[in-house]
Every structure is written in structure tokens, then in C-alpha cells.
Design a protein that fits this description.
Helix content is 0%, strand content 51%. The chain has 106 residues and is mostly beta strands. The protein has one domain. The protein has a four-stranded mixed β-sheet, with no helix packed on it. Strands 3-2-6-7 form a four-stranded antiparallel β-sheet, with no helix packed on it. Strand 6 and strand 7 form a beta hairpin.
Length: 106
């Protein structure tokens, strides 16, 4: 509990991500360009206007420095469209079963 007048600890700009992949599930890592910084990226089924899911774009620390990423840690294996905004379809990507797909987004 925070004392009155004490400022809460600010949220971390990024955090660890657990990948839950295996039978019927995979993960997706998107490497977006700078215009996506601080935004959310939405994806949805490529063959329908079904429900979309979103995740934040964050710098992730790697051995070679910070990398801008959006990570979907567990998705049903299949084809997805990455939405550039609420109405504009972007590239399509296949999320493989028990593996991680990676794509650059500009």
C-alpha cells in the first residue's frame, strides 16, 4: 500500500515475455519501424474479419542493444493479417505450430 502523497512506482516500458507454444500454438515477433513506437499493433485472422488481438510495441534488450518489438507470445497456429491501423490491412504472416514466426513491419 502506498502512503498518501507518495508517488506510485511507474510502469516499466517493457517486460519479460513468456512464449506458450506447442501443439496447435505458435508465437509471433514483429520488428516494427519507428513510426510504431509507443503504439499497439493489432493482428487478426487473415481469412476473416474475426476478432483481433493487440500488443504493445516496446524496446527489448538484446546482447547487441535495444530492438523495437511487438510480441504475441501465444497464438493459434495459422495465417494472420497485421493491421496498419483500424481499417488498413498490412502484410500477412503464418504462425507455425510449436515455433516462432518473425516479420519486419515498415
Amino acid at each position: 500500500m502506498t502512503d498518501p502523497g507518495e508517488q506510485p512506482i511507474p510502469a516499466a516500458p517493457s517486460a519479460s515475455v513468456a512464449l506458450d507454444i506447442g501443439a496447435g500454438r505458435g508465437a509471433l515477433v514483429i520488428y516494427p519501424d519507428e513510426r510504431y513506437r509507443g503504439r499497439e499493433i493489432e493482428i487478426g485472422p487473415a481469412d476473416a474479419d474475426g476478432p483481433r488481438v493487440h500488443t504493445g510495441v516496446h524496446d527489448r534488450t538484446t546482447a547487441s542493444g535495444a530492438v523495437l518489438t511487438a510480441i504475441f507470445g501465444s497464438l493459434a497456429a495459422g495465417d494472420y493479417v497485421i493491421w496498419r491501423d483500424a481499417t488498413t490491412r498490412g502484410p500477412e504472416v503464418t504462425v507455425p505450430e510449436a515455433a516462432v514466426a518473425e516479420i519486419a513491419l515498415s
